[in-house]
Amino acid sequence: MKKSLFTLLLILGLTGCGLIVRDFRQIHRDALVVDMHSDTVLRMKNGTDISLRDTVGHMDIPRLKEGGIDLQVFACWLDTRTDRDSCRLIIDELIDTLESAAVRNRDDLAICRTAAEAETAIAAGKIAAVIGIENGVAIAGDLANIRHYYDRGVRYMTLTHTASNEWVTSSADTAPAFDGLTEFGRAVVRRMNELGMIIDISHASSRAVEEVLKITKDPVIASHSCVYSLCEHDRNLTDEQIRAIARNGGVIGINFYNGYLSGEFAERADSLWEFHRPQFDSLKTLYADNDSLYRAARKPLRDSILARLEGIVDVGTVVDHIDYIVKLVGPDYVGLGSDYDGVPSMPDGLDDCSMMPSLTRELIERGYSDDDIMKILGGNFMRVFHQVCGGA
Question: Rounded to whole angstroms, how far apart are CA atoms 58 and 338?
Fold first, then answer.
């Protein structure tokens, strides 16, 4: 009895002195870690072999393993300006690309259509790959295409992107042609509910988000968004929207892009890009017929600009956004949505997906419990995945 009491007092004393340190690596390994959004499939379509550790980009299988990511959503992105007759063809090609990669890497990667399938794949030591579509323009104005994509394994669709399409307005649209959703847009929401496809409201206008939440019978996600109160960017969510998503039972995946995390970064970056715009425009004209050569030619200038912005945003800034949501609505409605391979700059300490454990370390240092860390790293998304997409 005395020994037990002494041991308890010793533990309490050491904890109070900060001498007991929880192993963030072990907690990260024990968690089911989910990244709700990356654009890596676009790099794959352009020839990147994700089985090999790369020196460019943010993501490949070796770095996914190193980062302890158990479930990765691969978004198939489409520009709003895409000719409507080409939309389905392009998305199908992107899905084909991911499927081929999964076949070639069957011991490491498995495409999953339900949370139960994902959990089985993860238990077998594989990375669960979930297919998303970024930009509802992909359905080309035809509700039948939602079923087509569902049958191909797509389990969430981001309704719009940085420009409004014909049926939903974008957060970046300062003069929308209609208010939020058209009647067709409302039919899209209902059809996604019927099929069991998760609705993603990232990029959508405030009015569109409001309308979606009135119609949907299922939880929604904001797969890759941040907090407007911390960084006043149109892509970020207001307190009112965060509360509404929480009431809906949805999840917000915090985006790692520096420009959505920090107003200071965004302001300084905009100034530098504008100053160097003539040089970028000159290169774009010179390589107008070859986008790959243009990207290679602009890289030294782009890298020099980003180097001047280092030190503004770090892992702690990402957790600031997580903290804000937790304090506003609790720990059940926030997750991770990196936007790796979709944005030009990442926080210091999160340069690529191999560095994900640094988030767990930061959460521990801020006093988060193991249970809440498990929710944030992936449990919250899995709850929605189970609820919307079925699977035992």
Answer: 10
